[in-house]
Design goal:
It is built from seven helices and no strands. By secondary structure, it is mostly helical. α2 (about 15-40) packs parallel to α4 (about 65-105). The N and C termini lie far apart (about 85 Å). The relative contact order is 0.08.
Length: about 170
Amino acid sequence: MNELVAKAGRGDVKAQEELFQYLQPRLDRIVRKYAWINGVETDDLRQEAYVAVMEGLLRVDTSIGSSSEYLLKFARWRLLDCLKKIRRRREDAVDDIENEACEAGPIPDTEMLEHRLNVRQRRIIGYLIQGYTWKEIGDIMGFSAANIAYHLKKIRMIYGVDEDERERQHR
């Protein structure tokens, strides 16, 4: 295997094709695992993995250990770096959304209820008003859609109690 990696590193196209065929099943498993865990497109990660293997071919020392394992680890490191960048972008996007929601002022028709809602419930309502689905809100806040449904049930209970109080006051 080390000879194949050495040939591929020197630019032998046939050796590169053979190496990629050998590494493909393991790279695909790594890519699918990371894509599933992080909710990222498999094709994007696969492309990053193959680019990493090509870069690794330029750095690998075939006289030390298993060069194919080095290339797989190199691809794994590259994917983890890529996922960190994606996560940072998502967090920055969430921060931007939160800042926009704060700048927009209080949520309409909830000013009287705002003191009864906790911060999490207010964020959920803000996202709903912006048009996000339960799943998207859960992804943004790090919850499951079922957890968002639980919070919405609590919010509805608060709204329901307030509606009953308003009706009693108007009678």
